[in-house]
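Hi support team,

I'm opening this ticket because the web form for multi-chain structure prediction keeps timing out on my end. I have pasted the exact lines I submitted so you can reproduce it. The total is 563 residues across two entries, so I didn't expect it to be a heavy job. Is there a limit I'm missing, or should I split the entries? Thanks in advance, R.K.
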Amino acid sequence: MPERPGAGSWLRRRGQEILLTAPPFLWLTLFFLVPTLLVFVLAFRPADPFGGIGRGWTLATLRALADPQYLDIAWRTFWVSFTATAICMLLAVPTGYAVARAAPRRRKLLLMLIIVPFWTSFLIRVFAWKSILHPEGLIKKALVFLGLVDANASLLYHLGAVILVTVYAFLPFAILPIYAAAEKFDYRLIEAARDLGAKPFQAFRKVFLPGVRQGLVTAVLVVFIPALGSYVVPDIVGGTGGELLGNKIAQRVFVDRNLPLAGGLSIVLILAVLLPLLAVLTLQRRTKRAAGRDAKVRP
Amino acid sequence: MRRSRFPFIVTGVVLVFFYLPILILVVDSFNASRFGGAWRGFSLKWYARLFHEPAIWEAARNTLFIALLVTFVSLVLGTTSALALHRFANSRLQRGHYTLVYTPLVVPEILMGISMLMAFVAAGVELGMLTIILAHVTFCVSYVALTVLGRLQDFDFTIIEAARDLGASGWTAARRVLLPMLAPGLAAAALIAFTLSVDDFVITFFVAGPGATTLPIRVYSMIKHGATPLINALSTLLLALTFTTVLVSQRLSASGSLKSRTME
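Hello R.K., no limit was hit. The queue was backed up. Here is the completed structure from your submission:
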């Protein structure tokens, strides 16, 4: 770009920058930043009887949040998300590796097969499982036939179903960043490790995994964070026994229309999302500093 | 050296896991039986019944209208955002701008839904089509901005300088050089915005209010009220649409990269 010195051109450039930045910046401030901050403020307002937000200030939301049921739900949400993320990683690492190492034409096909579910309606993918796990559904019949499950057992409406479908919904998101990192990995390093006497698994753990670390971190975050805020999955296959934080927020909005309490629960969720994010960021910064690595590596 | 077969076996299992539920759903949509599980013969009756559900078609019309408008607005806003982020990279304003664009991508949908709902209620805006459109544009802008930004970063700006040296005005250079070369990126971004808008359920559910219904909201209430075979048929139609879109977009991006290769 032509760069000419002088105060006039600096001013013009600055003007151009502001002109170009203002529309998206103002839009996101007005409809994303302000509403997010507003949640923290409105949580301290009383609910009005018409389902709106009343005047004055109150600590009613904070007192309501102290209810042990919410602590249980928050803890359960964390565990479900954690387990689903762990299972996703166990499946995504070998898959990402296999796709990256496949022959070019085959790789293109595999990639396409992984991306298609990514574009498919989320609601429909969750619904597909509801009909499979349904008492009249295929899996139930197969399991009863094999004698693995009692004819009266329910496959739907418990935490196991929530975890299964969460893995199903978010697995494509976990595979893609791992594939992206595995594709750039220099596989001669593994050969070198093997030549130096490392066993296959050792080479995988000590050379491959650290080499694709950035992809692993991204994969964990893109599964764990949406899982924490999950609402559709527990709502459709979870039943009352499988409710998570997201369901409680929705109930406060749609069942008893208590927006301040819904806001209070959202704050709990925001904190639950921020904590792992900050943990990863500080951990990354520390290891980066320790290793004195180039900071340009990005997903 | 012999490579382990284990990762390839896992990949096979994962693909079966991905596609089996979808396959069962498609097959069930042609099943005369009301519940899946037992095959009672081939039938198109669920599709026929689908065409006699005016509520579904009204929801589909709403969805299409919203998605087209949202795609247009978010494409304009997102492209301006990407141009600013690219051209003035590393200024303090752009660092703040980047954070503002990036954060919505890592915030769970339900949080965006509830915060926008509370803001609309607090501001006294009536919930309906308008609030759905505002909300959709908000989450689409970030995806458009980052997609276009990715294209801009691969873009060779000396070509613009060449056009300017050859006498093109700034506007002409942008229109005749930058825009055509950016077109595949813009098309990809538009496709993402359109798909996100058509598919969104959670945020829409929160800001829709009682009057306005989109297709995902309709599907959700059908799931809740147990109209299973109808959803199977509707889902199959939507899946067919998705597969077509993905194929077309693959073509688009393939021809796009081909064009940029021949231009080099």
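A quick check on our side: Chain A touches chain B through 85 residues (CB under 8 Å). Let us know if the file doesn't open in your viewer.
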